[in-house]
């Protein structure tokens, strides 16, 4: 995919995206680098750009549209899978009665207001 990367220093890199990671580090191939003032050009077979120095990326509109479509398809697929109890982090009925010991439950003394749990709890004063 062809793209333009502008760095915080003002240099620009035009090339084809090979890879991008979670920190926005980018690997480009067939790259043309342009100096900040636009007077000098370098052609490179490939380059690696650290995500922290990137100012912005210019990506073709059709690529952005494709990503949006893929995200919608993915959401629909996830919705249709559903099924299980509770979903998310809770685990459904399996954890339904857990946590009674935290800040309440049978056997807790009424004069200990706000002493919830073994990790310090919350104390109202």
From TrEMBL:
It is found in: Nucleus. Residues 1-63 form the Sm domain. The keyword Flavoprotein does not apply. GO terms for molecular function: RNA binding. GO terms for biological process: mRNA splicing, via spliceosome; nuclear-transcribed mRNA catabolic process. CDD domains: LSm4 (cd01723). InterPro entries: Lsm4, LSm4/Sm_D1/D3, LSM_dom_sf, Sm, Sm_dom_euk/arc. Gene3D superfamilies: 2.30.30.100. Residues 81-93 have a biased composition (Gly residues). Residues 75-125 are annotated as: Disordered. Keywords: mRNA processing, mRNA splicing, Nucleus, Ribonucleoprotein, RNA-binding, Spliceosome. Binds specifically to the 3'-terminal U-tract of U6 snRNA. LSm subunits form a heteromer with a doughnut shape. Belongs to the snRNP Sm proteins family. This is U6 snRNA-associated Sm-like protein LSm4. It comes from Schistocephalus solidus (Tapeworm). The lineage of its organism: Eukaryota, Metazoa, Spiralia, Lophotrochozoa, Platyhelminthes.
């Amino acid at each position: 995919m062809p793209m333009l990367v502008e760095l915080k220093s003002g240099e620009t890199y035009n090339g084809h995206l090979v890879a991008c990671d979670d920190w926005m580090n980018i690997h480009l191939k067939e790259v043309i680098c342009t100096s900040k003032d636009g007077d000098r050009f370098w052609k490179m077979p490939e380059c690696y750009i650290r995500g922290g120095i990137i100012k912005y990326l210019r990506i073709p509109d059709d690529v952005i549209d494709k990503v949006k479509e893929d995200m919608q398809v993915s959401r629909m697929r996830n919705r249709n899978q559903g099924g299980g109890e509770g979903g998310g982090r809770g685990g459904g009925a399996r954890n339904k009665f857990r946590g009674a010991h935290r800040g309440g439950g049978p056997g807790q003394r009424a004069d200990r207001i706000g002493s919830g749990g073994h990790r310090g709890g919350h104390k109202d004063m």
